[in-house]
Amino acid sequence: MKNYSSHEDLGDNILEHMDSLEILGFSYIVYQDTLLCKNADQNDSIFRTLKINDKYVFCEECFGYLPRRNSSSPNDQFPICNKNDFHALTKVARKLFELAEEVQLVV
Fold it and tell me: pLDDT of 63-101, one tens digit each?
């Protein structure tokens, strides 16, 4: 289990199950098909913070395919990729880190 807190930390690594990410104060755990925020009611808050209007379109661009939605609570969940597609989750994490770093430069 590895911890990543920046694009530079992640580097060329591929995320693995149970790795953790810290992005703009949001802590995520890598699962087999999604990223789950340690504070469950903030699963998709990173998208609002980064002013990403449609998290599914954003993730589709990163995944390279249409993400699935959690049917029980689609509005507050992180989009779901194919099971064990850690390359797709890594692409999302890289892009979120890049956007977070841009926001921090502006502030």
Answer: 999 998 876 655 568 899 999 999 999 999 999 999 999
Alpha helices in 64-85 (DSSP H): none
Strand, coil or helix: what is 10? helix
- Give the whole-angstrom CA distance, residue 35 versus residue 29: 6
Q: Which residues partner with 90 through β-bridges? A: none
Six token digits for residue 96: 């979120």
For the chain, give percent helix, strand, coil, nearest 5: 40, 15, 45
Q: How many helices (H) and strands (E) does the chain have?
A: 4, 4
Are 75 and 51 in contact by the 8 Å Cβ rule? The answer is no
**Nearest Cα to Cα of residue 62 among 32, 86, 42, 38:** 86
- Condensed to tens digits (0 to 9), the pLDDT of residues 19-68 reads 999 999 999 999 999 999 888 677 788 998 999 999 999 999 999 999 98
